[in-house]
Every structure is written in C-alpha cells, then in structure tokens.
C-alpha cells in the first residue's frame, strides 16, 4: 500500500464508473496489472492459465504479478484443479481480509461508519448522532472519532456517502439540501487531512446502488435504488454503470415536481416528491406516503425502462411491506415489462457499505 503524504488533489477514479472502472486508481497499487489480476481473482478461485487467458497478459507477466501479490498476502495458493492431460493446476484465491476499507453514511441527523474486507462484507460498524444543522468541522471531528478505533494498517481508504448535491470528482459538497452550513465545502480534502487516509466522496444514493450492484454481479444492469430517509433520492444503474451525469449530480429525484400546487420543499421549490412524501409521512398517512413513492418509481420505470427496483432508507425499513405494496400497485402491469421490486438486504448498512465498496472498486481492475 502506498504511503500517503499531504493532500492529493487528483480526482479519485473515473467519475462516470464505479466497480466497472476501466482504469483503476493507482493511489492504491503498484500497477495496472496487479489491479487486473485482483479483479479477476475477485469472482472466485483462478489458475495462472485462467489469468493469462482472461487478462491478455503473457504467462511470464502473470507469474511475476502473482508472485508479488502472494508475497504481499493478497493472494494465496489453495488446492488444485485437474485439467485432464498434464499436471493439476494450482488454484489462487483472494485473501479477503488482507486489505480493508471504511465507508460512512452521512444522514442529516446521524453518522454511520462500517469496516469491510476486500469482499465487501461488513466486519464492524459504529453509529453516532449528528447535531441539527451540523457544520463541516463538527462532522469531520465526529468522523475521526468513529474512525479512530477502527484504524488498521490494512486500511485502503475511506468512502463517504453524503447528502447531495455534490461533485464526486472533486469531493466538494456544493449545497447539501437542508444543511445550510454546507456550501462549496471541500469535504474530501478536509477528511483526508484529518484522517490521513485516501477519501472518496459520493452521493449517498450512488453509494447505495454501488453496494447493490456489487452484490449482484454483472448481469444486473438496469436498476434504480430509491433511498427514503430524511430526504428522497435515487441511485441509477444504467447499462451496467452508475449514472452520475455531467456534474455527477444525477438522482436528485426527490426534488422533481409531483404536485404543481404542492407544499413548499426544503430546496425552495414546491410540490417536490420529497416534500409531498414527508408531509404525508409526518401526518401519519402511510398510504399516501407510499403512494407518492410508488408513483415516483413508476415514472422512473417509464422513463428509463429499468427492470429492477430496490427500496432502501430508514422510512422504508420501518414499513417495508407498505412501501413494497405502494410501489407494486403503481408499476406497469404489462407481462412483458416485468419489474423486480425488493427491499435492500443490506438494510441500514447499504449506503455506508457502498461507500466502502467505492474505495474497493478502485482496488480492482478489468482487462482493457
Ligand atoms: Zn425539493
């Protein structure tokens, strides 16, 4: 692992991709080939011959990379595979706990930090309340307080899933909705300075869809994740990639208009999905609240033709059956347009785990 000194102002990875990053970020690795070999080993035990075939590297290059990764404790030889003619080939396995990542979810009233291994499995977590209208300095201090007991020499970095709008490429939070002290705050720089670790910042909704897509593999290509917490937002997976948009600000779906004469929203507009939903939820009208989310999801399905919908966030986890019913009732009924709807199995950890996976994504490469 590369030692870190001072602030690195280079953008963290490719803003338009996540775990499908074609070019891994070399802040973590000695080289591209190491990342490609690790990326191939991530999906299961492989032989050196498999690695050469799938990576396009020469057998000699694979041998060298594998030797290095074994010496570093990232890969281990584990059993053999018979291939008919010739001697059995040695299998190589990724050592999941050889490196770790931290992920954080920042809600308007709570901070959650999880520790994951290279497989993305959550090993530990810490949760603390955040004061109302918290300032950047308060947040970074609280983040450090939760991260410090989880520190480990195997840590690759820290991912932060934050309330948008923000710029994923620069790590600057521009105007987080309903957090007035957050205007053009260089969160990544502040957090790296305080923690002394590489940091990646993304919207909470993007982190959440990264977590879902990481779990399900590459055949899961077109999906929306609807996060209903203190606000409403969506993460978009389109054609196998997280869709962040031109300013990495896609998914502010909570602030699209669902009722022209609707209530005033924290964003300054009226009749936003978030405002109409929260008003119904606060009044205890669960049927109305879930119908708003259902209608919003049906609109997204019409617009994007996604075939998977994942519901997440505190409000959903409190009433999962009601939200599922609200969404299912609103979806198109044509049999040739099936849409799978479910609640995230990662429950309260989905954003924080996804933020850690953003760090891990930079660790794995794919063949060019
Ligand atoms: Zn709004």
TrEMBL record:
It comes from Saccharothrix espanaensis (strain ATCC 51144 / DSM 44229 / JCM 9112 / NBRC 15066 / NRRL 15764). Belongs to the ROK (NagC/XylR) family. GO terms for molecular function: DNA-binding transcription factor activity. PANTHER family: GLUCOKINASE (PTHR18964:SF173), ROK (REPRESSOR, ORF, KINASE) FAMILY (PTHR18964). This is Transcriptional regulator, ROK family. InterPro entries: ATPase_NBD, HTH_MarR-typ, ROK, ROK_cs, WH-like_DNA-bd_sf, WH_DNA-bd_sf. Residues 39-76 form the HTH marR-type domain.
